[in-house]
Amino acid sequence: MANRDDILRMWQIQIPRMALKRKCLMHSLFSITALHMGHSYPENQSAYIDRAIRYHNIALQEFSLELQGITEENGASIFTCATLTVIFALCLALLRPHKEPTSLIDELSGIFLLLRGVPLVIGEMWHVLRESEIAPLFAGRELDDSIVLSDDVINAIRLLEDRNQLVSRLDSERDTYSLAIQGLKECFKRISSKDRDKGMVLSWPISVSQEYIAFLRSRQPMALVILAHYGVILDEIRDAWWAMGWGRRLIQELNQVVEGEWKSLLVWPMDKITIGR
Hints:
This protein has helices spanning about 5-20, 25-40, 45-65, 75-95, 105-115, 120-130, 150-165, 170-190, 205, 210-215, 220-235, 245-255, 265-270. The protein has two domains: about 5-135; about 150-270, no CATH class. It is globular and about 50 Å long. About 65% of the residues lie in helices and about 0% in strands. The chain is mainly alpha-helical. The two termini are about 20 Å apart. The protein is built from 13 helices and no strands.
């Protein structure tokens, strides 16, 4: 799950050691391992998925309990569990067989809801996490203002900002979307860094507000077109086993859902997963 040596060592050594003391983290690791086995051995995929779901359900119970009392001792494991929850949900949405079509939009908004407790960890325990066993996750995460985004990304972000200013009627609504767009811009910068790692794409879903999630779940057009631009970020890591074409499939689904004047804001994301690859 890592492409930087320090982060790779963290996942191989420090986090398993942490998991020996935290049931939440141990079962989260078991669930991801089972999904990876399912991805690697398609002939036994169903059995591995069932096992992954069982481990994940146990992890979620423990995670909920841990969130009720965040301390310096459990902050690192809570943050790690939250990260693994995103990866689990991303994998499961595409791996498991569906008797009926399942919306990736709904899957992703569900992932966002699961992570509502994470900003509390970041906000209150930031200094602790930076010095903890998972410190490599935060190394190089500082936003580098010297990074200049490509013209097409700058233009795409500007179009989102302009549309938000034009159509959002309430100040609160406009502010919610502005924060989400600003977060996207920062995420694009992070994945443009020379020290980037694939986990940086998770910074945006962890940071989006509850208000944005509500707009997304009610299929508000502005929320949907913003999500499509996040799909471009996901497509940047399409070679990661746990991303597995998520970005492309999400953008394609959004292109079917978004209608009318909003369709113009899907042109760039659609181009990025076709001619822009």
